[in-house]
Design brief:
- It is a single chain.
- β3 and β4 (72-77) form a beta hairpin.
- The chain is built from 5 helices and 6 strands, in the order ββααββαβαβα.
- With 174 residues, it is of the alpha/beta class.
- It has one domain: Leucine Aminopeptidase, subunit E, domain 1 (3-Layer(aba) Sandwich), CATH 3.40.220.10.
- α3 packs parallel to α4.
- Bound molecules: ligand AR6.
- Ligand AR6 is lined by residues 10-12, 22-24, 30-34, 36, 78, 114-121, 153, 155.
Length: 174
């Protein structure tokens, strides 16, 4: 059975098989989580990212974690919020699904997600958290033996409280 955990932390400090980075299509770094991940992982991450050739919104690519405690980084490119009329919900769902598929495909047992798209990309926080929880719980319903641990890593208390509110609802809804 997969454990779902909410933490209030800096994702670059987590000891997991993969941390997910909230990247942009160039995959060459940026601010927010992306800046923190690149700083903590070191120059080799940038070199590895250059070889990936970018990534579409709603997709994800994997690299080693280099100097991070995490063994891998899954670079997921969330949608930019444009009022909800440009398929943003679906693109965010795809980010979670693709990241989980990459973790499963690489036989990883633990993964930590930041709240993708809820910073610079402006996605409404509750709506993003609902999508994150729904996508992760549906994936583990279908693949119950693949992942041991999924961590929702929140950078502030309010976001962590929101996830803690949503998780039991998702579990109860099964
Ligand atoms: N650990 C965990 N969560 C964090 C951390 C951290 N170290 N730093 C920020 N957050 P954002 P996006 C939270 O802007 O909205 C970048 O420039 C933050 O509070 O990092 O997907 C990329 O290069 C927020 O809730 O990602 C792209 O251009 C969440 O992480 C663009 O920003 C996501 O905020 C992507 O925007």
């Amino acid at each position: 059975m997969t454990r779902l955990i909410v933490v209030h932390d800096d994702i670059t400090t987590l000891e997991v098989d993969a941390v997910v980075n909230a990247a942009n299509p160039g995959l060459l770094g940026g601010g927010g989580v992306d800046g923190a991940v690149h700083r903590a992982a070191g120059r080799k991450l940038l070199e590895a990212c250059r070889r990936l050739g970018g990534c579409d919104h709603g997709d994800a690519k994997i690299t080693p974690g280099f100097d991070l405690p995490a063994r891998h980084v899954i670079h997921a490119v969330g949608p930019i919020w444009r009022g909800g009329v440009e398929n943003e919900d679906h693109l965010l769902e795809l980010c979670y699904r693709r990241s989980l598929e990459l973790a499963a495909g690489n036989e990883l047992r633990s993964i930590a997600f930041p709240c993708i798209s809820t910073g610079a990309y402006g996605f409404p926080k509750r709506r993003a958290a609902e999508i994150a929880v729904t996508e992760v719980t549906s994936f583990i319903d279908v693949h119950p033996l693949v992942l041991e641990r999924v961590v929702f890593c929140c950078f502030d208390q309010a976001m962590a409280a929101l996830y803690r509110q949503l998780l039991p609802l998702a579990a109860g809804g099964k």
